[in-house]
Amino acid sequence: MNRNGRLRLPMLIGALLLIGWGSVPPCSLLAQDRLPPVFPEERQLAVRPASHLTPVGLQPQSYAPQTVAPTDLQRRELNLSLDDAIRIALDNSEVVRVLVNGTPTITGGTIYDPAIQATDIDKARAGFDVAIESSSMFDQLDVPFGIYDLTAPELAGIRANKIQNYAFRSGFSKKVVTGGVASLNVTAAETDRGPFGLALAPLPPIPNPLNPENRTGVELGFVQPLLQGAGVQANTAPIVVAQINTEMSYYELKDDMANLVRSVIEAYWGLVFARVDVWVRREQVEESNFAYERAKSRQAQGTADAAEVAQTRAALARFRVSLISAQAEMFNREATMRNVLGVPAADAAQLVPVTSMKTEDTAMDWDSLAATAIDQRADIARLKLGIEAAEQNLLLAKNLAHPRLDVVGRYRMSGLSGTSPTGDGLSSNAGQFSGWTLGVNVTTPLGQRAMRADLRRQELSLARNRAALNQAIHSALHQLAQSYRNVRQFYQEYLALREARTAERQNLEQQLSEYGRGRAIYLNVLQAITSWGDSVSAEARALASYNAAFATLERDTGWILELHGVTLTGENYVSRGPLAPLHDGHTYPHSARPTPNVDRYPQGIQPADHALDFEQLPRNRSTRP
Description:
Blueprint: H1 3-22, H2 26-29, E1 76-80, H3 82-91, E2 95-100, E3 103-110, H4 113-125, E4 131-148, E5 156-175, E6 181-192, E7 213-225, H5 232-301, H6 306-341, E8 349-353, H7 366-376, H8 378-400, E9 404-419, E10 425-427, E11 433-443, H9 449-516, H10 522-556, H11 560-563, E12 568-574, E13 587-594
Parallel strand pairs: 1-8
Antiparallel strand pairs: 2-3, 4-5, 5-6, 6-7, 7-9, 9-10, 9-11, 12-13
Helix pairs in contact: 3-5, 4-5, 5-6, 5-8, 5-10, 7-9, 8-9, 9-10
């Protein structure tokens, strides 16, 4: 077989193997334990059914959500104080949930974010770790060469020298905070050329007389930048930036936790209002039903006509619709609070708030609130840290804008040993052969356009961050002022609506009295019932808004967590990496979990809606929910 024929066979076998692997369907790759050496083209969507994906281990809740259907209304009541609600939410805050315009929303923040960000600090410090490099290589060379051979018919021949080499290299390098790099390398090499055939004619060049031959070397070097890459601040800037980013992540989590506490308070008072609204609508239904039954009785006695019966019946139907809507809203409010608390959407108990709403006014000092907001708000703290990070990046950009000028120094010692043709061993003395290198390396692009552009970018970024901080303080004070106004507004509305509710109550009693004596039509009574219910509901809404607005004011000052005794405590864990046998058991950041809150609100023994001073209607026989 000629040379071309010998080459075609391996090429044909290789092509068949490639075609065979390329015909494997993509879907079947997912079920294989071993992947092919050559991946085929993806010619179809390989999608597994959702039921075949990795199970999460969570079981669905065993209770259906509570609805307004009569069969779904019977559940035991579970008293829940506001302090306990905040404590439950903090305990379930692995992923932070907040209310945005009354809707539960995930912020995207988790208690693991600061610990994850903290790993960048070690990554930045790793640039100063000692780097060890070691290699040990064996190779054998069988290099053919042509010679003149007078004994052969062709007057030529092919011979080869079999050479065996061994090379060892080991060393380490260490970057210091000034930017310099120190290195130490040790080398050793052995070459065995094997027996040399003297019968060849003519002889090839005479090789090194030492065979085998051993070479050794030790080299100590140090490279110190003088401009670009020089200086402690420039070389530690990445570490400082990583530390600042970790602080920013911490304050971002703290801001999310503050919003979580505020959201729990808002949802809690929203549920109290919803329960009051249900009680009001139920009172209206009871009063309207009483009037309807009374109208039917009077019609049977001949003292009322069909129009009065129809009017009271229609009113009763409308009030029942309002009651159903109020009950649905109460269940929605409870579901919202459950969502924020991180508990199942439904269970065997209905949550009953027992912490009473604050009805007294609170003194507030604007100057103290504004100063606290500027000093304590987490979003302002993040922007301050952003300025520090920008300053470090600017320092680094200024350093990189310099030309590269490095001083290089090396000192080396070399040794040689081997076996002479007579079989005697020869070796050099220790330190007999040495050398050194000393000089400078200069590298710089003409114009340094990229460096100057990055320097300009960092200067502008710093100016932008400072402007953003000023705007954040400006916006924070406006936001705080709005919360300040809301607290005052809702409390004044509460006082006015409390007076209006008293007047509506007296009007209702008067209209009922006049209607009972036959001196007024039922329409006046219907309007009085509606106005009384709306005033009670509005008063409860204003009071709930006042309590929620006060929590928002505390959040806007950046002091809400401290007022509730909540701090973020780092949790550690032992991590064992690739060098597990050498690990000393040191711990690393794991998460920043919030501590339980302290009791701050008065503990009630009855539902919060019962504690409000809302009197039932005179004839009413109902009880509150």
